[in-house]
From TrEMBL:
Pfam families: DNA_alkylation. This is DNA alkylation repair protein. CDD domains: AlkD_like. It comes from Gordonia oryzae. Signal peptide: none annotated.
Length: 239
């Protein structure tokens, strides 16, 4: 019988669609000079990958580790779904081990596009940090100048924001607010917007009152997206 990683890889490839692979590759900039340069795609939609993750519920860390080293983007995406699924179910020691695997995957360059970061940072690392009451790992990653490390640090704060805790986001923001890379700007603005929605509008506006004038336009645009029109105009005028 084939190993679990071999079965998973076979299942992903069977669902592949070359036309969809081309579309996804363009969307995720897998072109020379793009942030996804060199990645491989087989063309499997996210809902299909989520269904496969449910099918392999209970998979072990070794199998997920093998999948994470795949050159195929969708297989790494599925591996991260599995990691999020299993780390959430694990006890303290088990969850810590999954988080260690995740940090190594980030360091090894396997979490190397925004969709991979966004599907894993909060449910794996952020949730663990929230669980133990220590968000240093997120701050540490946000302080890293490498693009995907920094985005993990920012997006990972979503786990705390969902629980009404803005402290990790407010600790991360000063480290990234001057980074004008588009994928950092969007992540920062997104989490600030979530802070306003999930923690409180005043928490967001207090931050913007102090920082809107010096923020990047993209981050500001994302952050104020759900505010009323007059308030959006006021903050844009500060730029």
């Amino acid at each position: 019988m084939d190993s679990v990683p071999a079965q998973v890889i076979s299942a992903v490839r069977e669902l592949g669609d070359p036309e969809q692979a081309s579309r996804i590759a363009r969307y995720l900039q897998a072109r020379p000079g793009g942030y996804g340069e060199g990645d491989e795609f087989v063309g499997v939609a996210v809902p299909q990958l989520r269904a496969l993750a449910r099918r392999w519920r209970g998979v072990d860390r070794g199998a997920v580790g093998e999948l994470l080293s795949s050159p195929v983007h969708e297989i790494r995406f599925l591996a991260l779904l599995l990691m999020a699924q299993e780390s959430t179910r694990a006890d303290g020691a088990g969850a810590r081990a999954w988080v260690g695997d995740y940090r190594r995957a980030v360091d090894n360059g396997y979490v190397n596009n925004w969709d991979l970061v966004d599907t894993s940072a909060a449910p794996v690392l952020g949730r663990w940090c929230e669980r133990i009451g220590d968000h240093f790992a997120l701050v540490d990653l946000a302080a890293d100048e490498r693009l995907w490390h920094r985005r993990v640090g920012i997006v990972g704060t979503h786990a705390h924001l969902r629980e009404g805790d803005a402290r990790p986001m407010l600790a991360v923001a000063p480290l990234v607010v001057d980074d004008r890379r588009d994928l950092i700007q969007k992540a920062l603005g997104w989490m600030l917007r979530e802070m306003g929605k999930r923690v409180g509008r005043s928490t967001l506006t207090d931050y913007l009152d102090e920082h809107a004038a010096s923020m990047g336009r993209t981050a500001l645009r994302y952050a104020i997206e759900h505010l009323d029109p007059a308030t959006r105009v006021r903050y844009r005028a500060l730029r």
